[in-house]
């Protein structure tokens, strides 16, 4: 019997990272106006390898000035460099000058899709948690997050380690129960080639070994991380696993979040909470309507949150139908403020609104790719 072969530490490609990012985003109704946004690799080649990842609210000249020149860098941005591909490249415009610098230094740029706001750990959920609303529901439901069944075949002595790794990465949760799995003992066969390095058996010999069929439920957003976690601890050189979509279950998702406060709070207290929780300071000032001093002591019980520009007319309508009293917007356009009826509209600004979600994304990237020699940073 030869010794188990550990997986080699190879820097990930841009395509690997993009696949992971897209796995986090729920598959929502493509006809929904809330989801129209640009989302792609705006600069870079998918096959290129990456040494450093920077998660940023938006690309900027000041950010590029701090980046190392001897590393293969990928920027993951909440804001696109271009809303539509330019036809004429005028280097005097800020966006085109920035594009030129990215091209000259071979820095890749990927823009997160707007559907990331609706992800289970996306902009909306993370903002709600950051301002003190850990229990919230979708404000405007637009679909269901796909659930999957992961089946992996494991030698009996490694089942506990693989089961724990998969569970810690997000598999095996059913309602209020975690670490859920089904395990069935059976026999597996394989014949290693002369180039193989088998953990069990010999090259050129047909082997028959005991294996456990380990089954676990995995939400779509955790699938990539779970598979990587399983591969990291599995003793086999080639891990045998299958992924099956589950059509009978799913977690509702959509844009915006709503919360019912058990204990009502004064409107001015809610504003203070937002400023403190997001550390707005003097850089960002809250805007809200209507500017009537009589609302300062009004009590608030129903609150909604939505992140992104160009989506608030739809979300405000949903909030109004659900009797929301205060709608907290993460970035607004001028049209959002025209003739706004209740609920009260409070704008905290786009950059502070996406910060909690980008920080959480940075943590997820470190969990998945941190062991492969990649430096991953959040750069506000």
UniProtKB/TrEMBL annotation:
InterPro entries: DUF34/NIF3, DUF34/NIF3_bac, DUF34/NIF3_sf, N-reg_PII/ATP_PRibTrfase_C. One of its GO terms (molecular function) is metal ion binding. Keywords: Metal-binding. The keyword Membrane does not apply. Pfam families: DUF34_NIF3. Signal peptide: none annotated. It comes from the Bacteria. Belongs to the GTP cyclohydrolase I type 2/NIF3 family. This is GTP cyclohydrolase 1 type 2 homolog.
